[in-house]
Amino acid sequence: MAEFDKASVRAFLKRFKRAVRDRRSQLPIFEDNDAIAELGLTRKNCVEEILCLSVEDYHSGPDPDHDAQGYVWTFGSSIRGHEVYIKLKLAEWNGEDKPKCLSFHRAKQALKYPFRIPDDRS
């Protein structure tokens, strides 16, 4: 699990979000629709959640995609009371960025967020 600096994470998110917005009529490809339905979300809800991700939501990456060329970045978010694991990838197709969401499901374990400030209010 590789970890990058804030600037690298910020650059990836900016590029990913721009690719999502540039493809206005096409949502990113979601490869795990059953997990999305289990959370009671629509694909549009998921896109909205992705567009709200920040550097503080970064968990890990970029890691090599073992199923295809490219790299996968992993983020986490709290959605409807559940910690959700979100794996994102930018694939290039005909010179354009194609945003993909490889995974959007409940986390099986607590995620670590290297850029979040711990909450010491306990």
Would you kindly provide a written description of the structure presented here, covering whatever features stand out?
The protein is α+β, with helices and mostly antiparallel strands and 122 residues long. The chain has helices spanning 6-22, 33-38, 43-51, and strands at residues 29-30, 58-64, 71-79, 82-93, 96-106. Helices cover 26% and strands 34% of the residues. The chain has a single domain (6-106), classed as YaeB-like fold. Strands 1-5-4-3-2 form a five-stranded mixed beta sheet.
Main β-sheet description? 5 strands, mixed
Tell me how many strands there are: 5
Percentage of residues in helical conformation: 25-40%
Q: Briefly note the structural class of the backbone.
A: alpha+beta
Tell me the fraction of residues in β-strands, as a range. Answer: 25-35%
SSE sequence, one letter per element: HEHHEEEE
Strand order across the biggest sheet? 1-5-4-3-2
By CATH, the architecture is named: 2-Layer Sandwich
Low-confidence runs of at least 5 consecutive residues: none
The CATH topology turns out to be: YaeB-like fold
Gyration radius, in Å: 14 Å
The count of domains is 1
